[in-house]
Amino acid sequence: MDKKLFDWLIQDLENLTDEIGDKNSRRLNISQLIRVINRLNSFSEDCEECMKNLLEISTLIKELMDQHGQLEKQELKEHHSKVNNSISHLQKKHKLVAEGTYLSIYLSIGMSLGLVFGMLIYDNLSMGLSLGMGIGVAIGAGLDANAKKKGLTI
Ligand SMILES: [Zn+2]
Could you give the CA distance from residue 5 to residue 10 in angstroms, rounded to a whole number? Predict the structure, then answer.
């Protein structure tokens, strides 16, 4: 993508964040949007799909700016689903992981295993559960940190 256009998108989003405040920015997940744009931009020279997603997101941002970040419930849903499309492309095609992905995966694995072991071995559900959660969090957070270190986090 044209470097100027890209800078302008980021600039727009930063201005919007200032304008609408932290709470609304989190609702729109603008910091994630900026990371997604960065990633799409870095692949867009070699990947048509990334280019396409990037253009789609730039339209999305234009709408956001026009409405000063005030999206109706339905619009918000569409907004997130478009951003999620880009994220799933980045995950599948470019092997990136969303922040906290491993944590949520291993937390739920840990919880289910913890329940089973708690029941079978300790005869103590809550102990098994907290043990499982502890292990799940430790593994998941470790893998997330590792992905981040390798620059694979969106
Ligand atoms: Zn791509």
Answer: 9
